[in-house]
Amino acid sequence: MLRIHFTDADLAKTRIAAAPDPLWEICASVHRFQSRHGRWAYADWYRTARARLHAADFARTLRTLLLPLIPRATYFPDFLTPPEAAEGLDAGLEAILATPRRRVLDEVSILGRTSGAPAWALRLTEEGMRKELVQALRTYNDTVIAPHLDHIQARVEAERAAHARAVLDGGIDGVLKNLGPTLRWQRPVLHTVYPEDRDLHLNGRGLLLIPSYFCWGNPVALGDAALDPVLIYSLSHEPHRAALPGDLGTGAPLAALLGRTRAAVLRATATGATTSELARAAGVSVPSASNHATALRNAGLTVSHRHAASVLHTLTPLGAALLRANTPALQ
Q1: pTM over 0.85
Q2: What is the tally of structural domains in the chain?
Q3: Is residue 52 domain-shared with residue 9, that is, in the same domain?
C-alpha cells in the first residue's frame, strides 16, 4: 500500500499533466510486454506493436536492453523518467543523457538490489552506452507509440476535461475521489495498492498527476521521495472502446456524419459535454444524442470518458480538425 500524505498547501499545488508524458508512456508500454494482466485492453496495440518491432529488427533490442532495465517490478531507475519529458521526447532524452554519473550508478545499484540489474547496466555511466539507450528509446517510441499518439492525446484530454468538471463540482477533493478503483481518497491521505508498503509525505511540494494510457493496475510513483512527487495512474479502459483505432476503412462511419443534428452534436463536444448536454445543444432526446455520440466516436472524431454518473464526450485531434475546416474564418 502506498499512502500519499497531503497538507493544505499540497492540495493547492496538485495539478494534472497537460499531455501524455512520452517517457512514462514508453516505460508503461514496455511493462505491457511483461504481463498478461489487462492484455484485452491493449490487444490491437500489442499485436501491431509486435509486428512493427519485428519488421524494424528491434525485437532483440527490446528483449535484451529495455525489458531488463524497465522491469515490471517494485523499482526501475528514476532517471529514465525525468520531469523535462513534459516538454517533449527530445527534452526528456537530453535529460537522460545529462544525468550525473553518480545518480545513474546509485539507481542502477538499487535496481540490482530490488529486481536484479543486467550485468551491462553499470556501463550506463558511460556516455556511449547512455547514447545507445537513448537511441533505443527513440526508436521504440517511433515504432510502437508515435503511430497512436493522436488517440492517446485525445484520451488524456478527455481525462483532463473530466477532472476540470470535478474541480468545479467538488474542488481538488472531487478529483482525488475519482482517480479510479485502485485509488482511495480519505482526506488528507490518498491510498493506493502498491508493490511495497510506503508513505510519501508531500511536505508542501504538491503532486503532479499524470494520466497514462499504457499504465495498468496500480499507479506508479518515483522511487526517490526527494524528487518532485508525481503519480502515474491508468486511464479507464472499457471493452467497447479499449482498442486503438486503425484506419478509417471505407469511410462509411464518416459518411454517417452528414446532417445538421450530428454536426451540432460534434460542435457541442468542443469544450466537453455530457450526453444530456449534447441532447440540449442539438434539440434531440438523450437516447438520440447517445446514438449520435456513438457514431462520432466510431468515426474517430470523439472519445467518451465516464465522469461520476455521466459520460463526458470530447473531441479527438481529427474531430477538432474537421470542426476547424468547417468553421468560417473571422473577417
Answers
A1: no
A2: 3
A3: no
